[in-house]
Amino acid sequence: MSETFQPAGRAGTTSDDLVLPFAVEELDVRGRVARLGTSLDEILRKHDYPPAVSKLLGEAVILNVLVATALKLEGRVILQLQTDGPVSLLVTDFTSPEGMRGYARFDADAVAALGNQPTLTQLIGDGTMALTIDPRLTNRRYQGVVPLKGGSLEEIAHAYFQQSEQIPTIIRLAVAETLERRDGDTPVRTWRGGGVAVQFLPEASERIVVRDLDPGDAPEGMVLDERDDDDAWVEAAARAQSAQDHELVDPGISPERLLLRLFHERDIRVYDPFSISAHCTCSTERIGTMLGQFGDNDRKDMVEDGIIKVTCEFCNKVYRFAPETLEPLGEPH
């Protein structure tokens, strides 16, 4: 069969700062391609992160975007890594319809001691990854938690989907610092990233093989599913895993072109893309309300040089307030 590309009511787009949903119906899979350019660079440039920390945070941002845009809900999706390693805390959140942000807390000396290309295990040690879904219209939150076991954030994500969703899923993530020409001839360094998520969603659920998690948490005596994976999923997973890092980040390779390469000789249907942007939800009003919840003695302890200063960990903006009245002192900067 010759390859075809079927837009499903999709308008034309640029190749950056978007998520492109797609389906390969012959293989019973649906997925998304994420491509982040200026939006990711804006998040990472807010802080003076070492390259290894920027790369890890960038991968987490992309993973969260891939998960959040699949849920089609109003609200927030928060991805958080808590560890005992040099990068002790990493948080990203995606607020529908398109806003994303993230930050990392780390020990600069410990990260520097690891050299130029530390492994994920060296950066994070032991800990957990939590994915929290916080719908805007209800008070019910959902949270899935998995241990940080694996050599990459992709492997940790696979464990999450196996344990929490029981949907066969393949995730590919890539982040790189590149040289780009913008307003002049002088190249500037900029962070770029991309990712692919592919999930096996057949109409007949019995085609999904559900495996026990290593080291095994099934009840004693339970008969485990020893079948081989469905042929369609084996093919789709192999195709998705063949995505190369440079294909995921290169602005010259559009998401459509990437899909045609991955699923050549298969019919691909694409849908309306999601535009995404870097957006922090902090504001003078929110910070002022938060300060108002502290008692007088607590606020006195916050005073430095006659004012209260609060720095947003996500966007690094500094808010200044009068201690007695909590009136804002100028615009955040």
Commentary on this structure:
The protein is α+β, with helices and mostly antiparallel strands. The chain has 2 domains: 257 residues, Hsp33 domain; 38 residues, no CATH class. Helix content is 28%, strand content 32%. The protein has 10 helices and 16 strands. Strands 1, 2, 3, 9, 10, 11 and 12 form a 7-stranded mixed beta sheet that branches. The longest helix has 21 residues. The radius of gyration is 22 Å and the shape is globular. The termini are far apart. The relative contact order is 0.18.
The portion of residues forming beta strands comes to: 25-35%
Number-wise, the strands total 16
Per CATH, the superfamily of the largest domain is Hsp33 domain
Global Rg: 22 Å
Q: What is the count of helical runs? A: 10
- Please identify the top-level CATH class of the largest domain: Alpha Beta
Question: SS-based structural class?
Answer: alpha+beta
Q: Domains counted in the coordinates: how many?
A: 2
What is the global morphology?
globular
- If you average the pLDDT, what whole number results? 89
Q: Biggest sheet, open or closed, and with what strands and sense?
A: 7 strands, mixed
Cα distance, first to last residue? 57 Å
CATH architecture of the largest domain: 3-Layer(bab) Sandwich
CATH topology of the largest domain: Hsp33 domain
Uncertain runs are 1-5, 8-13
Helix content: 25-40%
H-E order: EEEHHEEEHHEEHEEHHHEEEHHEEE
